[in-house]
UniProtKB/TrEMBL annotation:
The keyword Nucleotide-binding applies. Pfam families: GSP_synth. Keywords: ATP-binding, Ligase, Magnesium, Metal-binding, Nucleotide-binding. This is Glutathionylspermidine synthase. Residues 24-409 form the Glutathionylspermidine synthase pre-ATP-grasp-like domain. The keyword Transmembrane helix does not apply. GO terms for molecular function: ATP binding; ligase activity; metal ion binding.
Length: 413
């Protein structure tokens, strides 16, 4: 596996922080502005300036696994489309069912990230982020800056080109003309989401404009910008199910009207609604249950190799990870090993349906931080853009990978 980071001389906090702040300034100037995250009433380090040396063979295996996993997700989506009754198992609001199963001439998702655990016992995918994946700016911008600081080649150097190719495909699939404007939105207060949207918008080849989510006007006839321009096409870095709870100034649920407009083709969104359908972690239990029914022999081999046994109920598992089906950023997860709780989050998503995934421990990885060497658990995110593996995203944190798990750049050897 990956080598542990080691210091060649005693740790000097002042010297380290001075060097780290210089890297932070360079990253911020290029659009990565959340190298620190304010949470629990204090600044938390999110970007490490360590550089992991990853074996080229591992990087290639993650790339191959990502392609195989994405193909299996695509096949699973096609199977659900054939048997629409299966949607009741996914833990998604019934109000969204017709929208998610609506016939579309698009990919099920154009921007995905699959999260993998790599250890001496193999490589396993633990979930798919198919609706609103982030980590793009880290993988494209901060990764490049850190590789240059360390004097190494950046294995993610092709991400910009992959995203441009995705936009070309989206323009074709959605029928966006050169005179149409694609509006980009996110919660304006959320720095990470807003900068991610700006990064994607900068790579879009036609007319584009940012409009804060808070300023979008949902009327009875259409969706508009604050200055009254009709929105026909919208890239939204905002979970589709969250729209159901959005309220107008007088308390009415304007999110429901937004969903109605999508159903009636008053506007089109990217990622498409099918991306939310495939975001449900219950997809993983469905894949495992149907592996001998839906898939070819090669696909079954890939499922056995890269997927973990996952079920809708606990059954006989004594070591497992319990996950809410629409949880995000580690919220609501419980890890149990041999009957003992290893870690859990009870603050979020406790009202959702859950799945139970066989526990597959993450390997330890040591990185450099403000406070000296830190050893945490390593998770590998793999971006799949327009169906193509497009760059890796490494994080080191606790047994549950949350939003404070640290991003760390990598190179290959």
């Amino acid at each position: 596996m990956l080598p542990h980071y080691s210091l060649t001389q005693p740790f000097d906090p002042e010297r380290y922080l001075q060097r780290w702040l210089e890297v932070e300034r360079k990253a911020a100037a290029n659009g990565f502005t959340w190298a620190t995250l304010y949470e629990n009433y204090e600044d938390n380090q999110y970007m490490s300036d360590s550089l992991l040396a990853v074996p080229s063979s591992l990087a290639r295996e993650v790339e191959n696994a990502s392609r195989a996993v994405n193909d299996i997700f695509k096949k699973t989506y096609e199977q659900i489309r054939k048997d629409r009754s299966l949607i009741h198992r996914l833990g998604i609001s019934v109000f969204l069912w017709d929208l998610l199963l609506k016939e579309e001439k698009t990919a099920f998702s154009y921007f995905c990230r699959y999260d993998f655990i790599a250890s001496a016992n193999g490589l396993k995918v633990i979930e798919g982020n198919t609706d609103t994946p982030v980590g793009l700016v880290e993988s494209a911008i901060a990764q490049d800056i850190l590789c240059k600081e360390h004097g190494h080649l950046n294995p993610n150097a092709g991400m910009d080109a992959k995203i441009r190719n995705a936009w070309t495909q989206i323009i074709k699939d959605y029928g966006i003309s050169s005179t149409d404007t694609l509006y980009f939105t996110s919660a304006d207060w959320h720095d990470e989401d807003k900068q991610t949207v700006q990064y994607l918008m900068n790579l879009y080849p036609q007319q584009a404009k940012y409009v804060p989510l808070e300023e979008i006007i949902v009327g009875t006839d259409d969706v508009q910008t604050p200055d009254g321009k009709k929105i026909d096409f919208l890239y939204r870095l905002y979970p589709l199910e969250y729209f159901l709870e959005e309220k107008g100034g007088t308390g009415e649920l304007i999110g429901e009207q937004f969903i109605v407009h999508l159903m009636n083709d008053k506007l089109k969104v990217i990622n498409p609604p099918s991306a939310l359908l495939m975001q449900s972690k219950a997809i993983l239990s469905l894949i495992w249950e149907k592996k001998d029914e839906w898939y070819t022999r090669m696909e079954r081999d890939a499922i056995e190799k890269y997927f973990l046994p996952t079920y809708d109920s606990l059954g006989n598992l004594t070591s497992y990870v319990k996950k809410p089906v629409l949880g995000r950023e580690g919220g609501g997860i419980q890890i149990v090993s041999k009957g003992a709780v290893v870690d859990e989050d009870v603050d979020y998503y406790q009202d959702q349906a859950t799945i139970y995934q066989q526990y597959f421990p993450m390997p330890d990885q040591t990185i450099d931080t403000w406070d000296g060497p830190y050893t945490g658990k390593l998770l590998i995110g793999s971006h799949v853009i327009n169906g193509e593996p497009s760059g890796l995203f490494f994080r080191v944190g606790g047994p549950i990978t949350g939003n404070l798990s640290m991003f760390v750049a990598y190179t290959t050897r």
